Amino acid sequence: MTTAVAATKLRSDQHRWAPYAFISPFFLLFATFMLVPVGAGIYLSLTDWAGLGEPDFIGLANYSRLLGDASFGAALGNTAFYTLFAIAVVLPVSLLIAVGLDARGLKLRDFFRLVYFMPVVLAPIIIALIFGLIFDGQYGLLNAVLEALFGFGGVSWLTDPMWARVVVVVLVLWRWTGYLTIFFLAGLQAIPRELHEAAELDGAGVVRRFFSVTLPQLRPVTAFVAVTMLVNTAQIFEEPFLLTQGGPGEATLSVSMFVYRAGFQRQELGYAAAAGVVMFVIVFVLGRIGTRAFGVGRTR
Amino acid sequence: MELNRRDLLKVLGLAGFGIVGGGALAACTTPGSGTPVSSGDALLDLWTHDPGYATFFTSAATDAALVGGSAWSFGIDVTSIAPADIVSRLITQAVAQRPLPQLAGLVIDQFPRVMRADIAENLFVDLTSLTEPLGDRLLKTQPYSVDGKVYALESDNSVSVMFYRADLFEQLGIPDDVGTWEELLEIGAGIAADTGQAVGMVANGDNGSIVNGFVQMLLQRGGSLYDADGNLTVVSDESVEVLELMAAGVRSGAFLALSDPYGGAAAAALKESQLIATVMPNWYEVYGLQANVPDQSGRWRARTIPKFAGGGHIGSTLGGTAFAVLKDQPLTDAATDLLQRAYLSEEGQLARYHAGAYLPTLVDLYQSPSFQQISDDYLGGQRVFEIYAAAAQDMPIFYQAAGASVLRDSLGGPILRAINGQIGAEEALATGVRMYERQVQQ
């Protein structure tokens, strides 16, 4: 083989490997920070481990324990409630606010945008403190207002299981509506005005235009927002943790809190990992269902 | 030298690889391990959640009255960490063989986490040889013991007494020496009906606060959550009696149900003079009363807790933070020496009181003149150690077990329902214990 042929082959090899070398950083990072921890988590879920020493391999015992754990069942039920609420209430409310903000001739538009977006940038601990003051059963602002207006104000917002769940979802609504509104607003502003004008010329009213023009045109944004909200709410942690710590009893415990409690309050890391794996599977399946149902990624 | 784009990328790549590789190799070393240091400079790393302990240890390290004669010259490097994160980080650092502190402050409700799987034994120095010679003189070693070995020393005895508004008691005609809870509840019901004021509070917020309030009264009544061997003992006549008393108090208005005994609701109740008495540990005077109602200085007093008619104690305990020494480090002996000097000597206990009002854990010190002569301006110049001494002498023993966190979560809901009158005391206890046993047996 001549030197020229060898040099050509080397160049050819370099060209063949170059693309892989260029994209390798992503895969290296992905493997290091995603695949390895996920694999370790799955292995850990098959062990009994308190954090120190060698994990004891116990097979699927953690999973069978989860099946019979009433606390995990409660956490699943609560999380399902939060998720359902987020999709059924937060999403439509965000869309309606966005439509309102997109209205022609609206004054103080930027002010309203700022107000609706503000909860997103506030520290969760401050939000929890403020909500605690508003919803306190004995000295809360809301009860005081109810008392002044209607003569009753003895609702145990944070200490009654049902009301505590309601307060958590109110917090979810308050915190995330503005954030989602921004996405919808961006989508609304991308809809050509001509479509609305044409529909108006054809005699369509406000409601008809909303359903026949706005909603179909917003479908990609709605799909993205719905799936993101679905996946995020299925992993809800901060809101119940800061507001009620999962209480009263386990009335507001979410699956993420269950994982945290098992791992970092009870030192049952294997059990926490098993709950984490189950949560991952549920979120993944929900995400896939949502993606298919809303047609995320499909061309219009 | 001419540097083309390809060469530049190679240089940058090699430099990056060098940095990452060097960091990775450095991470594989095990700092902290080494030959024990037996004298000389000892800069000790201390992890704590409470600035008060940071201040105390920092000054204690150079206080000749405390460290004079030691082989080490101490210094303290403080890291502030949240209570739950201290245990988590100790474990993760140990697993990763990364640097550990020499001293770590463990909040009492976090200690059960290290009672599992020999974690305490593997992480901490066994301090039994320091505590054993002190015998019954030293209080509150039990909550930090595993298999009879003491792994941490309590900083504050956390003696529970009754704080009350002397001015309002006098105005309302409430005797300040009511003998029993039953009598006080009867008086309290009348006061609540007349003025809406309460002579006690019950937590109805998170599980921790609910169960803590219950345990404080249960210990006073002579009951307990666990015995010395870690067996569950919460199902008892004493527990039923305490729960029924709490429920009766809330029902009649004698007890105020508050979501957070340390938060905004309690502050409002104190400011509005709606809460005119409460049973709380000594530290509540600083963190609860003085912090929320400084304007009520001089109006509050402390007394021992009214007994239950059925028996029990005149004192109780709630909360606490103990310090542990991390084992197998070059400065482990130095840290143990400082902890012994600061925590097990009269000078150390007096210095702790003056630094942050932390009560002595050596029970006989309550009678010593240096403590007895202390008067408390916030409590109207009261000689508080007359009260604390009586309560400490009769302080119940508090035992913990590895499943304490599970028990707290299991009991919280049922206790709340019992307090609210939705279920009976016996049913609440049975429900809670059933939930607990289902989880702990597995």
From TrEMBL, chain B:
Top-level taxon in the UniProt lineage: Bacteria
Pfam families in alphabetical order: SBP_bac_8
Signal sequence, renumbered to the chain: none
Name the record gives this protein: Carbohydrate ABC transporter substrate-binding protein
Organism per entry: Myceligenerans pegani
Phylogenetic lineage: Bacteria, Bacillati, Actinomycetota, Actinomycetes, Micrococcales
